[in-house]
Amino acid sequence: MFYKTTTQFKLVKKGKPYHFSRNPNIKKRKMPTYKLRGIDVDFPFEAYDCQLVYMEKVIDALQKRCNALLESPTGTGKTLCLLCATLAWRKSLGGFSTGSSQRKSEFHGSQSDVGPSESQSSNHPTIVYTSRTHSQLRQVVQELRRSNYRPKMVVLGSREQLCIHEDVSLLRGKAQTNACRFLCRKRQKRSCTHFSRVADYMKSNPHIGDEPVDIEDLVNIGRKYGPCPYYVARELHKTVDILFAPYNYLIDREYRGSLNFEWHNSILIFDEAHNLESICADAASFDLSSGLLTACISEAKHCVDLAVGRREESNDKSGNPDNFAILRALLLKLQKRIDEVPIESKELGFTKPGPYIYELLADLNITHETASKLIEIIEDATVLLEEDKKHDAKGNGCRLEIIGNILKSIYRDKGNGHADSYRVHVQETEANATEVFKGKSSRILSWWCFNPGIAMQEFSERGVGSIILTSGTLSPLDSFAQEFKLDFPIQLENPHVISSNQIWAGVVPLGPSGRPFNSSFRFRDSPEYKQELGNAIVNFARIVPDGLLVFFPSYYLLDQCISCWKNMGNTNSSTIWERICKFKKPVIEPRQSSLFPMAIEDYMTKLKDTSTSGAVFFAVCRGKVSEGLDFADHAGRAVVITGMPFATRTDPKVRLKREYLDLQAQSPREGCKMIKLLSGEEWYNQQASRAVNQSVGRVIRHRHDYGAIIFCDERFAQSSRQSQISVWIQPHIKCYSKFGDAVFTLTRFFRDGGSRTPAKPELADQKTLDLSPSSTKPVPDEIKTAQALDESYTEKLSVLSTSMDLPHSKHKLSSLLDVKSSNNSSHLRDIPPANLSCFTPCMDLKKLKRSSDPMSKEKKLLITGRGKMQYQNHDVIGLTGHLPSDKQQSKEQQLCSMKKHKALLIEHDKSSNVNASDAQRSVPRDLPFTDDGDAEVDAKFLNHKKNDVRGSAEQLGAEETRGSAFLIQVKEKLSPAEYKDFVGYMKEIKSKVINIGNPLQCIVELFSGSERLHLLERFKDYVPARYRSLYEQYLETSKRNA
């Protein structure tokens, strides 16, 4: 259950300056409390067992001052659990900082963003909560608002995000930083008015940060009341209990040096940490291409011209042209030195140990002593270039700034102690047209870091209390501890909050024709493999409703398969691609990042198209689709993994990384003897498994979601491969020896989709949990009221839902009938491959809800059919006979009608009582359907049966009959497409969407027009009471427009 929160602070104008105060009319709401390891943890709702275990692990790590690796699947409330557990532990040490009690430091102007902290020291540790992006941090702040905890907090952002100065906000990078610092110095003429208002605002609003504020809130405060949002945040972060920031504020040394809080005993939390290894390594590495170096040389020449021009025009001596000339000469010499490096093999390139970079630069007279002076010249050049109007008009960033960052990375800590973790590599690349014309080769100088633990080791040296890494897809965990070279004694791989009937996970090693699936280099280029995979995807596209995600190991294989499917086919039959498009409209992940938003929009548009059963997104593991996107509910009902996404072994960076790890494992250092070191081969396999886990995590995004995970590669059948899949998935994985068996169970899984409800997973070991007295507190009155309101409108809607089929997904499935044939065995007979089963029988399915009569033991099931159908000399068989139901609480009835005047009567039960409203609420569905019918009756019997059904309506409640009659009128007035939309909107209302105004407004638009106004009036009876006033507003507006 999720509760809507109200902002608990307000800005009050009391003359000048403006004041920030709490809203006294809002009280903290009561929440369930759980005692975990002696700590009382307030949680916004009744916690699942896995959530309690997660919070217990967090508190355990904090109490023991040790590090933790915690994996909890998406949808298990990981972020909220992390916040509540951490803040509960922090609160147990002493009260949170509030108001002026913590504001003893004075505002120190522009120097507050660098240098050591001058703020007061606190005996309590600071919590630093980081995530990958600001959009993710925005969601974290929203979760904090839902909790009862109100620590003093702030979200750090860059000047680019927070600056509101009219001119400075238009700049970027170092130029923006320098311009900001220049205007913030104490000068009488040119000064920043926003900066000058910070001190007064902070004194007059000591409570700012006591309630959750996001970056947008700070910007709004600045625009409305004047103070600079950037320096408000910088001043706040000295005294907060919890600090929110992106990863790079901790990983990047320059950002890290600007943070002014006590590092000793502080708590560092890295949320969404599944890519933290590569982020740490990449942040410490660089690639310098010939093209980039040429651009830097051009910029240095431009700086010389600008400096000379300024001296001649205004006697401006701020930039020395001689310095810029020296810079240009050094860059030219570096370019020549790189071109002279001997490369014997284009595939292997030129490789040297990390310290070789100092030898290379020493030839240019660049050492630790001269590098600092060179960095100063580069900083002057970047300011000069950004101020130049002509350069700014081009819209290009300053490339010289990259050279400055490279020198800072190389000569940090005087270059001691970290160079052994690097490799110098020079490789040739494809030359562009200009380089070819000049007879030059294109090369890249790289300095690659292969030890992502460098940053983490610096945290340990600063005396950090605990480092917590958490994500939904950390598995396999071993590589994290080994790569970071840190000990993580607290580890957790949590189960999901979903129940077993919400997930289908299977290894499908063979295709429809019995050929094995194996995407390795040996088999991937064979036409047989591509054809077999394509035919399998045709089957999955036919079976899976709504959204289907198909992940390939690489862009190469994706392009090759799609090209093959478009061309592979006989003259008298459709191609594989055409058959896929028959069931689902395709979208292909683009290589260019700029085109990706358009691809997502295209996918969502095609997903809403009712002419097919959904859309299919062809994507790549480690690509843009696999990272950070939420394909919840119908957007992603199944994910297909077509192979193991191993990195290219011959890639220089991969090859050198493996060699580095093997060397480390053979001769471990003193500090690493207690940690099992990772070999190159182990790292290589674990990286592929983590990419699989990341792709698989796109489906089943919350506790009410359900979906299928299909592994189409025989290597996934190996226990060693399955052991590296996320732990919550492993118990559900089944290996199918025949493709037909997998199709059979997958069809049954989606047939039962609408009746699933999540269940609490039971955990075997909960000895560490103390859920005594405090965990059994009564539900607060306000929560009970909300629950009562929810129940009341659910009852109202049940009048409509009992008269209408509200499918769990809006698109149709194929082969869904749960019929019991007398001559069917429990084992599925051979299924025709996709190229033999691509037909669409024209049938309408009317599905009746389960009978509410517990006394009825046997019922009749009326089904239409074609008897045996022939397709290319192949008997099409019924795929859904003898399908056992997961729950036998009640028998299911299904009523089917045909466009032909024939029907099929199957004795399912003996009782012939059929609910009247069931017949009236039947919604036509065009479903592919085959059966082995052995008896036929005339359509007149069907009509007679319908009359009998309607005749029993007197036994129903008046409300249900009225709802049925209303739906009949709705179907008469709406087109099939509009009625389908109406069903979807009703489903959203019934599922208690947070923003219920959207479906209500859509329904009002559907019923707009003079001929439908009576439907608009009548529908008001089925609107929840608390939203009726909103609906009446829509109603009045629609009447006026009509």
From TrEMBL:
This is Regulator of telomere elongation helicase 1 homolog. Belongs to the helicase family. RAD3/XPD subfamily. It is found in: Nucleus. SMART domains: DEXDc (SM00487), DEXDc2 (SM00488), HELICc2 (SM00491). PANTHER family: DNA REPAIR DEAD HELICASE RAD3/XP-D SUBFAMILY MEMBER (PTHR11472), REGULATOR OF TELOMERE ELONGATION HELICASE 1 (PTHR11472:SF34). It comes from Gossypium tomentosum. GO terms for cellular component: nucleus. CDD domains: DEAHc_FancJ (cd17970), HN_RTEL1 (cd13932), SF2_C_XPD (cd18788). Residues 98-129 have a biased composition (Polar residues). Residues 97-129, 755-780 are annotated as: Disordered. It catalyses: ATP + H2O = ADP + phosphate + H(+). Keywords: 4Fe-4S, ATP-binding, DNA damage, DNA repair, DNA-binding, Helicase, Hydrolase, Iron, Iron-sulfur, Isomerase, Metal-binding, Nucleotide-binding, Nucleus. Gene3D superfamilies: 1.20.1160.20, P-loop containing nucleotide triphosphate hydrolases (3.40.50.300). GO terms for biological process: DNA repair; negative regulation of DNA recombination; negative regulation of t-circle formation; regulation of double-strand break repair via homologous recombination; telomeric loop disassembly. NCBIfam families: rad3. One of its GO terms (molecular function) is DNA polymerase binding. Residues 37-322, 59-315 form the Helicase ATP-binding domain.
